């Protein structure tokens, strides 16, 4: 009964959606376990190009069950819009289910998100402004409203009667914003709840039934380890509880850690980051610009349309994420973006202002902001890789680059992605097949 977790190994946008779409064929359940519509997962397959925010990327296989697990924050209007868009484009949502334990993104959450960023001023996080942080904050503060409440008018009324006056005080007294009217919120969210109700289940039971039948359950992470509340570059992180790390997967779907047999870490062949916070290997020069805009798919945030910051592959941060997630299997994406560089750098250590060499990730964002990357140079391959489908098709220098990353991260790279489309990949090992830990 294998459960396999897919996580982002960097600052998000590594290509998780694209890889889930590729490997979901071998699973019977695909489940999102954390975050909300701050995530944006792009999938390109024979049905077209899709940007998914909350719906798992297994949705394109009509025989798979797709689950939005209890760890996900659900903005009902956004999710219903996503469901409608998929349906209109011929993608069946008949096997999509939403946990009754999901927390609901309420109208005060985006307001607080944006107002709080303004309050932070120069120290703003650069959030997506979708209200996801405030929703998870309320979850932890025991002020949340859950999907199960939303679809039950009496429970919803009682909960809103308690929570809204509290939140209106916060809106007015802390942020100087107008209060929200009870009747408006109750009416509009009850209507959304009624539309969501047919999808709502105790989704943990569905997952356990599949596991009991010895079927494979694929757990789709959002964001990346370096945005994780605990492991990431605090405080420039996201607020998901449970986190998007492998350790959060079981909690966010309702399975125990013993069931998870494989952790697949997705890594981009270089680094990107959206929003603020330290990024030691960031390139603010022409090379950074080329990585940002000249690749086959420019580095533009899927959710907010912001340009992603770019830099060389950071093996210090990436090794840390492989370690704390227990990654058993690595995936390298967007290798094709490096095709034309005469030489490529890998950051293998950080040098501090007082000349110390750090080989592991420091906890402090203030330290990370001042370190200088120590680079190792690899000769580029200067040949197109987007048509490669086997390991031997890859140019020798591209293979050397991948081998070096494997060594630095101490994980095998089992899939190399050389383009955004489903078939543009080299599968060295089936990541759903459990292998012994090395
Ligand atoms: P996610 O959030 O991890 O699912 O990643 P996003 O979808 O936000 O960003 C990944 C971007 O890279 C999308 O535009 C994908 O279409 C694109 N992409 C994924 N894999 C590859 C690849 O191997 N090569 C290229 N050129 N683009 C890719
Ligand atoms: P996927 O799943 C990239 C970033 C935001 C910001 C920080 C906090 O597509 O990889 P938030 O709105 O979550 O409070 O913002 O986290 N962020 C992401 N960056 N990909 C994501 O998701 C992200 N989700 C949040 O840009 O820096
Ligand atoms: Mg994304």
Biggest sheet character? 10 strands, mixed
| Helical segment count | 13
Q: What is the name of the CATH topology of the largest domain?
A: Adenylosuccinate Synthetase, Chain A, domain 1
Strand arrangement in the largest pleated sheet = 9-7-5-2-10-1-11-15-19-20
Report the strand count. Answer: 20
Bound molecules: guanosine-5'-diphosphate, 6-O-phosphoryl inosine monophosphate, magnesium ion
Averaging pLDDT over every residue, what do you get?
Answer: 97
Q: How many structural domains in the coordinates?
A: 3
Shape descriptor reads globular
N/C terminus separation:
21 Å
Low-confidence stretches: none
Q: At the fourth CATH level, what is the homologous superfamily of the largest domain? A: Adenylosuccinate Synthetase, subunit A, domain 1
Strand percentage lies at 15-25%
Q: How does the helix and strand content classify structurally?
A: alpha/beta
Percent helix range: 25-40%
CATH class division of the largest domain: Alpha Beta
Oligomer: single chain
Q: What integer value in Å does the Rg equal?
A: 21 Å
The CATH architecture of the largest domain is: 3-Layer(aba) Sandwich
Quick take:
This protein is an alpha/beta fold.
Task: Describe the protein's architecture and organization.
32% of the residues lie in helices and 20% in strands. Helix 3 packs across helix 4. A hairpin with a 5-residue loop joins strand 16 and strand 17. The protein folds into three domains: 162 residues, Adenylosuccinate Synthetase, Chain A, domain 1 (3-Layer(aba) Sandwich), CATH 3.40.440; 93 residues, Adenylosuccinate Synthetase, subunit A, domain 2 (Orthogonal Bundle); 161 residues, Adenylosuccinate Synthetase, Chain A, domain 3. It has 13 helices and 20 strands. The longest helix is centred in the middle third of the chain and has 22 residues. The protein is an alpha/beta fold and 438 residues long. Bound molecules: guanosine-5'-diphosphate, 6-O-phosphoryl inosine monophosphate (IMO) and magnesium ion. 6-O-phosphoryl inosine monophosphate binds next to helix 4.
């Amino acid at each position: 009964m294998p459960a396999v977790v897919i996580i982002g190994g960097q600052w998000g946008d590594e290509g998780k959606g694209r890889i889930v779409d590729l490997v979901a064929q071998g699973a019977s359940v695909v489940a999102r376990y954390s975050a909300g519509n701050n995530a944006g997962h792009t999938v390109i397959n024979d049905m077209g190009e899709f940007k998914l925010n909350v719906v798992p990327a297994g949705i394109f296989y009509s025989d798979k069950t797709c689950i939005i697990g209890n760890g996900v924050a659900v903005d009902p209007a956004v999710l219903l819009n996503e469901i409608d868009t998929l349906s209109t484009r011929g993608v069946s949502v008949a096997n999509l289910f939403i946990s009754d334990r999901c927390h609901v993104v309420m109208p005060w959450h985006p307001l607080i998100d944006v107002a709080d960023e303004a309050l932070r001023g120069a120290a703003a996080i650069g959030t997506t402004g979708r209200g996801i942080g405030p929703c998870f904050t309320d979850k932890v503060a025991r002020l949340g409203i859950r999907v199960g409440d939303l679809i039950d008018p009496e429970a919803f009324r009682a909960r809103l009667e308690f929570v809204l006056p509290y939140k209106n005080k916060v809106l007015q007294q802390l942020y100087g914003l107008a209060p929200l009217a009870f009747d408006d919120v109750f009416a509009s969210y009850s209507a959304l709840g009624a539309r969501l109700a047919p999808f709502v289940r105790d989704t943990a039971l569905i997952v356990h039934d599949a596991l009991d039948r010895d079927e494979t359950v694929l757990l789709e992470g959002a964001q990346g380890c370096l945005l994780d509340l605990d492991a990431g570059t605090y405080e420039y992180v996201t607020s998901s509880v449970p986190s998007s790390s492998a350790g959060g997967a079981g909690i966010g779907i309702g399975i125990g850690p013993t069931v998870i047999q494989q952790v697949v870490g997705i890594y981009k062949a270089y680094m990107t980051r959206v929003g603020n916070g330290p990024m030691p290997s960031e390139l603010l020069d022409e090379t950074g610009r080329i990585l940002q805009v000249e690749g086959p798919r420019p580095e533009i945030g899927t959710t907010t349309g912001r340009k992603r910051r770019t830099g060389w592959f950071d093996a210090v941060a990436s090794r840390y994420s492989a370690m704390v997630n227990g990654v058993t299997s690595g995936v390298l994406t967007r290798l094709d973006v490096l095709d034309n560089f005469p030489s490529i750098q890998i950051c293998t250590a950080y040098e501090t202002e007082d000349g110390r060499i750090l080989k592991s990730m420091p906890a402090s964002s203030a330290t990370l902001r001042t370190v200088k990357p120590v680079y190792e140079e690899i000769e580029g391959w200067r040949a197109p890789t987007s048509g490669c489908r086997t390991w031997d098709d890859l140019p020798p220098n591209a293979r050397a680059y991948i081998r070096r990353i494997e060594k630095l991260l101490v994980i095998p790279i089992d899939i190399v992605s050389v383009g955004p489309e489903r078939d543009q990949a080299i599968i060295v090992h089936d990541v759903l097949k459990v292998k012994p830990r090395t």
